[in-house]
Amino acid sequence: MAMVILGITVVALLSGVTSGMLTMRMARENLRATQIMVERTETLRLYTWDQLITPGFIQTSFPERYDPNTTNISGAGPIYTVTVAIAPVPMATAYSDEMKQVTVSLNWTTSGINRSRSYTTFVARNGLQNYIY
Fold first, then answer.
1. Are 129 and 49 in contact (CB under 8 A)?
2. How many domains does the chain divide into?
3. How confident is the model over 4-15, as a mean pLDDT?
4. Phi and psi dihedrals of 54, rounded to 5?
5. Are 52 and 86 in contact (CB under 8 A)?
6. Contact in structure between 79 and 64 (CB atoms under 8 Å)
């Protein structure tokens, strides 16, 4: 009877450790995804308006590493597929020609689970980039 209780306890303990490790891994990957999205949107804010609206000036699809310090893109955690979409503002206003909607999307796989995150912001013609010296 003691061996049955011990066996059940060990199985429950190992299951809890495995679940905890997967949860921490997913949390780290979510944090890295957030870092990538913030990095891309902050970089976009530094471009001039002409650079932003020039087709092909901004890279729209590229891979990003989980660990930016590694030189080999494979074997260093998941590979994030980053997509940057610059579109007209979806609302009809008097200044809609002066703004663009930017969406940064990320896709990656964790333990066979497809995951994705996206972030949408607006960039204006007379925005922050005009105040950088």
1. yes
2. 1
3. 91
4. -75, 120
5. yes
6. yes
